[in-house]
Amino acid sequence: MNNFNFCVPTDIRFGKGQIEGLPAELTKYGKKILLVYGGGSIKRTGLYDKLMELFKDFEIFELPGIEPNPKLSSVRRGTEICKKEKIDVILAVGGGSCIDASKHIACSAWYDGDPWDLVLDRSKVTKALPIAVVLTISATGSEMNSGAVISNEETKEKLEINTPLLYPSISVCDPTYLFTLPEKQTAAGTVDIISHVFEQYFQPNDGAYITDRLSESVLKTCFHYGRIALEEPENYEARSNLMWASTIGLNHLLTVGKGGAWSVHPMEHELSAYYDITHGVGLAILTPAWMRYVLCDRTVDRFAMYAENVWGITGDDKYAAANAGLARTEEFFKSMGLPAKLSEVGIGSEKFEEMAEEAVRTSGVASRAYYPLQKEDIVKIFEMCE
Q: 274-298 b/e with 16+ CB inside 10 Å = b?
């Protein structure tokens, strides 16, 4: 097991009605709030009205319309509001996109230059506004980590900013807020959780036994409750387990003692940067192809272990077990109603070379991944997904 530091300062308030305590907590920072949200679903569900009632004694400034792949232009708008109005705290209401945009805004509010500078050089992040979260989608785990992924629509780059200053101060995680999610968002969010765990599970270090067992438990939770949440949207047990799986899936707990670059996310970030597709959809398409491509004598033992410990597939033939586990994974993605091919989301081969080159340039996939991938490898994986 590798050395690690583990410190997650976010205050998680999990369960029904936890939003009631939020005003008292935010009062500690001041009375001027930047409310960040997406396409307006919080108004349709009544959550917006609830927030306005709870924060009636505060001064609220709004930044609506955050995109599913949050854009730099939105960060710039939010940063301008924060500076002009002297915002005390940012309240992100939504999923990972709103939270990620809020994180970038939080540190950009204390920076005199362009917000994109902070993505290209994290050392320039020296201070950040406090961030509070009301989570409405289970997917990214951004409610309890220090990372944020932002798309620069001008350069077609989708990159991460990550610093301990960007941990949310408090996150309200009420599973009832997931009841009204569209099926596609439930499905894509579940795959996003699974992919986060895969990226930490399929790593070079095999000595972090406890971390691997925790990862397998989160995977089994997603595979068990994902379909139930689709079929019974108001099943509190399913929603609560998926919500917590999302949070612990990327709050660093599942990577301690391991470490290494991620494999599928760098490829998918190029798809969503160039074509603006839903992140979880891209992951569902790419993951089975990546599994098939990297399955070899060096990786078969871990794939067979995954098949046995997550799917209960046993046998003397490790390759047979590994392939059976891979097939079960792919079948699950399809059962969630997600596309299996790039052509299903309108993506052709014209940008494969360009996207593969960018994936290598902007990540450690070529040198530090479980199975290092060069540009030509990524092109072949894209081709497997046509």
A: bbebbbbbbbbbbbbbbbebbbeee
Span 98-120, average pLDDT: 98
pLDDT on residue 189: 98
DSSP 180: T
Strands (E), 252-353: none
Per-residue b/e over 67-76, b at no fewer than 16 CB within 10 Å? bbbbbbebbe
Within a 10 A sphere around the Cβ of 111, how many other Cβ atoms? Answer: 17
Contact 72, 116 (CB under 8 A): yes
Please check the confidence at residue 223 and state whether its pLDDT lies above 90.
yes
- Give me the half-sphere count of Cα atoms (radius 13 Å) on the Cβ side of residue 196: 28
Give the total residue count for the chain: 386
Q: How far is CA 239 from the centre of its chain?
A: 17
pLDDT of residue 250: 97
At 264 the pLDDT is 98
Please state, in angstroms and rounded to a whole number, the distance separating the CA atoms of residues 332 and 307: 13
DSSP 234-265: T-HHHHHHHHHHHHHHTSSTTTTT-----SHH
Q: 341 falls in which pLDDT band (50, 70, 90)?
A: very high
pLDDT in tens, 287-303: 999 999 999 999 999 99
Which amino acid is present at 22?
L
pLDDT of residue 224 exceeding 90, the answer is yes
DSSP string, 198-233: HHHHSSS----HHHHHHHHHHHHHHHHHHHHHHH-T
> CA–CA separation, 201 vs 164, rounded Å?
23
Cα–Cα distance measured from residue 330 to residue 144, given in angstroms and rounded to the nearest whole number: 28
Helix H or strand E encompassing 287: helix 279-294
